[in-house]
Amino acid sequence: MGNNTGFQLARGVPEIYEKVLVPLWFGRWAKALLELVEIQPGEAVLDVACGTGVTTRLAQEAVGDGGHVTGLDINAPMLAIARDLAQGSAIDWIEGDVAETGLDSGTVDAVISQHGYHYFPDKARALAEIHRVLAPGGRIAFSIWDGHSAYTSALCAAVEKHISPEIADKQRSQRVTPNSEELVLALENGGFGKAGVHKQTLDIRVPLAPVFVPLHLGSMPIAGAFNALSEPEKDALVGDVEDALAEYVQDDELVYPDTVNVAMGYK
């Protein structure tokens, strides 16, 4: 759900992302985020790094006809899918950088972002812009991975072995994120009060590795590197992930815990 060139997806990949990762991962995290933020009917909400728009659409449901939601992302293919999926809604879509939203000052009640903050090229500028557009008393809430899960650790180890350390580092970078103390300090330096971090943990359920791993990697920026492997090489990579996660198999699914930090602050 990135907002700069650090998370750009090739043609065709955003469709896989929406069909695979959104229902299995990001849709669930979006609901958890919005429950914490407590979006109210009639509010104005900005969803930053909105990706294919799952959080944006849920926010629109929460604000109702009397509210207003804007989704912003720099990734044009993902934003195109977001527009298509939200046809008939009152959501506004902006293709652009979070540091320059173009919105009027003091007009937004809540700014939310699901797994976008990590990719902001200039986090201080981004937070300054968010602070500017928020109304007095408005709030910011963004979720960010709390390190690696058992699944992503196994996946990255297999990518390093069967593709390259460089490609593995690119995949790992999505989970190399600021800790709670760093997140709070960033919010405080950005002028936000009552800054804090809320930890959320979910049990994630996905198909078994032979099914899920190719779909997952096919929806990532490293899709080209995975798809360039021969079929035996792909099978070997998937096999390593499968072996590493044997203890997480339940009823023909992989079930493992994953955790995000949700950083919140108020203007």
List keywords for this structure.
8-stranded mixed sheet; alpha/beta; 10 helices; disordered N terminus; 267 residues; Rossmann fold; globular
Could you walk me through the main structural features you see in this protein, from its secondary elements to its overall organization?
With 267 residues, the protein is of the alpha/beta class. The protein is built from ten helices and eight strands. Strands 1, 2, 3, 4, 5, 6, 7 and 8 form an eight-stranded mixed β-sheet that branches. Helix 3 links the parallel strand 2 and strand 3 (92-95). Helix 5 (150-162) packs antiparallel against helix 6. The protein starts with 12 loop residues before the first helix and ends with a strand.
Short description:
Helix content is 43%, strand content 24%. The chain has 267 residues and is an alpha/beta fold.
Kindly report the name of the CATH homologous superfamily.
Answer: Vaccinia Virus protein VP39
* Number of helices, where a helix is a run of at least 4 consecutive DSSP H or I residues: 10
- Derived from helix and strand composition plus strand pairing, the structural class reads alpha/beta
What ranges have pLDDT less than 50 throughout 5 or more consecutive residues?
1-11
